[in-house]
Amino acid sequence: MGAGRKLADKLKADLAAVVLGPDNEATRHAGGEAFCYDADIVYMVADDLLTDFRNESYTKALTDVVNAYKPEILLLGTTTLGRDLAGSVATTLLTGLTADCTELDVDAEGVPGALLRDERQGAGRGDGRRLHRMRHLPRDLRGKRRH
After folding, report:
1. Which CATH architecture has domain 2-141?
2. pTM reported for the whole predicted model
């Protein structure tokens, strides 16, 4: 959530968390905990189909949230499940994916054409070089902004 907070502040946007899980007290508790990690908004999908991780059901739940609320940037953790989910969500949404970022930043000057910059270690090079990419955030994916 820390990297998301920095990007949201630069974009003057709300930081939202998504909590997916079964309809139980633990999922509700996790939703409440997200506010302790500086989320402004928490979107919760509580359904007993989400009791155990299944890529298809989690992908459907997360893509439904993304399509409904249109976040500017979607960050997922680099856990085994996060990596699995990120690939299928990016494929379903027909969007790009950057894995193993060591740094994320956004050029928010003239925010309607903001650029997302991601940085990662050069794969397999062993020489410490870093790859940089910059890309425009699509105008139609921009969410509501804080004032």
Report:
1. 3-Layer(aba) Sandwich (3.40)
2. 0.79
